[in-house]
Structure formats: structure tokens, C-alpha cells
Amino acid sequence: MKTNPTPDLDQKRHRNKKRQIIVIDGAKGGVGKSLVASVISSILLAQGAAVTLIELDRANPDIARRFQNHAPVLLADLSDRDGWISLLGALELLDTQYIVMSMPAGLNGVEEIHDLLGQTLSFLNIELNVIFCLSRQNDSITLLDQSLTSGLAEFAVKAVALKNGFFGKDETFDRWRNSAQRQRWQAAGHTETYFPELHHQLIDLLETHPQPLHLLLASNLPIVLRLELGNWLQVAQNSLEILFDTDVGEEEALEEAA
């Protein structure tokens, strides 16, 4: 008699609604993960969506500082298997529609938790979407390929290769454009986007104003910076449009926040 290795657990209460966990990855530091996570979380909050943020950077918890007074923030540590199991256990207790998580540098032992990760996401009816932040260097492209074969992108319903404009204009990502890794990424049904560069004055502004980005539009900033931030947020939101599926119109939400 053939047996099912998966425990016969009651799944009814986990099937009420599809939740989404949006993971911003890059497998290395300095590729813009925290900024992209801040943009996504701010857009969702501006739309009135329920969001939980998971902070994984204990050395520099920028996400926690920015959102701790505006949304639930869960602190986690993925340095070992125990940390992964603790995080996966916490997912069962979260009831927000969206969970946003920016990964720390490194591949973070996904291989060690591979089967359990897939089972947990399926059982809890959580859709995993991955944004992989790219620089223009070969190692960044290689790490994206590893994510596709043995990392988080392997489990993603939607995965987006994000060309960060901080590293150059769209047309300068020629290594990625001509790579075999890009062909494999597309063959897996995943897509790509170009994320606009943020002006250096706005970068300084975000460092000194740790709050959700859409709230800065309603703050007492110089007009030119509010206009620049609003324009940039709209372009950034358009570049990530594939991820958003809420009832509130995107442009209307940003206009109301302004």
C-alpha cells in the first residue's frame, strides 16, 4: 500500500484566501534590496493593503526603522536551519494579505530547507513572488541563476529580474541581455524590469526620514523634492506593476497620498 509522506493535517483554515510573500533578493549586498522593499511596502500601504514586513538585517535594520510605526514588523534570523524553521512557523500566524521580506546577503541556506519550504508555502496557501536585484556584473547574473535552480526563485509563482538603474541605464545591462542565464530565466516563465535610479538628494532624504515613502509626499518637504519623489515613485511603481493585485487603483492611491 502506497503511503503519503505528507502529514494528514487540517488545511481548511489555511485555504480562505491567497496570501502573497514578496521576497526581494540579490544574494549580495549593495544591489538595492532595502530600497525596493521600501517602495513595494509603501505602495501597498498607500493602496490600503494589509502588510507585514520581515526584517532580516540585524546589523542595519532599515526596514524596521522605516515601517515599525506603520505596519507589523517581524524580526528574523536566517543564518541557520533553526532560523528558517522559526520563520516558516511564524508564517502560519500572520494573517495579512501581503508579507514583504528583503533578504540579507548570501544564499541563506535555502538548499537545507528546500523541501520544507515548498511544503509550507503550499500548505499555508501562500504565493511566493521574488524580485532579484541585478547589478551589471557577472557574479550578480550567476547568483540569479543559482536562485532559479536552488534558491527562492525556484518556488516563485512570479519572479522578476530587476535591473537597478543605480548601476546604469537599461541599455548598459548588456551582459544580462546576452546571457544564457537570461534565456533560462525567461524559459521558466519569469520576467524582467528596469528600476529607475533615485536622485542623490532623495537618497539623503530617505536616510534622514525613516518613514514609508508615500507619507513623505504629504510631509513638509520642499516642493521640488516632493515632485521629484512623487514622479520617481510612480515610475518605480509602474516598473513593478506585475506584482500588484489590489482593488485600489495605483495612480489614484499615490495621488491621494500626495
Q: What is the highest CATH level, the class? A: Alpha Beta
Give the class from helix and strand content and strand pairing: alpha/beta
- The first-to-last residue Cα distance is 63 Å
CATH superfamily: P-loop containing nucleotide triphosphate hydrolases
The name CATH uses for the topology is: Rossmann fold
Helical residue percent band: 40-55%
| CATH architectural designation | 3-Layer(aba) Sandwich
**Shape descriptor:** globular
Rg measurement, Å = 18 Å
Q: Please report which band the strand proportion falls in: under 5%, 5-15%, 15-25%, 25-35%, 35-45% or over 45%.
A: 15-25%
- H/E topology pattern: EHEHEHEHEHEHHEHHHH
Q: Can you count the helices? A: 11
What's the story with the biggest beta sheet?
Answer: 7 strands, parallel
Strand order, main sheet: write it out: 3-2-4-1-5-6-7
Provide the number of structural domains.
1
Q: What is the tally of beta strands?
A: 7
Mean pLDDT equals 86
Low-confidence stretches: 1-15, 246-258
Mind explaining what this structure looks like?
By secondary structure, the chain is an alpha/beta fold. The longest helix is centred in the C-terminal third of the chain and has 17 residues. It has eleven helices and seven strands. The chain has a seven-stranded parallel sheet with strand order 3-2-4-1-5-6-7, sandwiched between helices. The chain is globular, with a radius of gyration of 18 Å. Helix 5 packs parallel to helix 7. It has one domain: P-loop containing nucleotide triphosphate hydrolases (Rossmann fold).
